[in-house]
Amino acid sequence: MKVQQLKIKAYCSIFNNKVMLNDQLLFENQETDFSSFIKLAYKNMDTNYPKFFKMDDLSKLGFLAADILLKPLTTDSERANNIALAFSNSASSLETDRKHQDSIVDKENYFPSPAIFVYTLPNICLGEISIRHKLYSENSFFIFNHFNAGYLYDYATCLINTGKADEVLCGWINRDTDDYEAFLYLVSTEGSITHNKEEIIKLYTTK
Q1: What is the pLDDT, as a whole number, of residue 139?
Q2: Do residues 188 and 9 lie in contact, with contact meaning Cβ atoms separated by under 8 Å?
């Protein structure tokens, strides 16, 4: 196995009604709730993916952050991209699960619908990113109690050094009640930031 010195090529954060790429503010709107904010951010980023509006909030959050990072790399629609995905959070799709529970708890107002789960769950987020950017390599979604930089570091390093991926898009996307955050970063053999646990934690905590 050829061990390579890996780098963090770029990173994106969405939190507190802000969209950041590296240390640059791309979009901000403090006047709206999350659902309105994410739609405004989508339009401002010129994302142009109609199925975005069918997704649940978790998928919208991850999809938009990934699109900002991957769009410059995947503009050739005929080229398959060997970029793996390694996402994580602490709540899985709990927010949508609660909506489903609310739809069945009141027997006098019973309205469960499969539509709640058509574009939800973490695998939908990974799947739509893969379709959008023609990704055919590894993808995984991990559930941790908190952001686990060490595990993501080991996982991304292993994928690249064993030749299973050329690059890995890693990070954390969480949506639960009123809280949300996305932090994604692209691991590559190119870039200016050393890929190690300490740098990942630094980028995450200083976003």
Answers
A1: 94
A2: yes
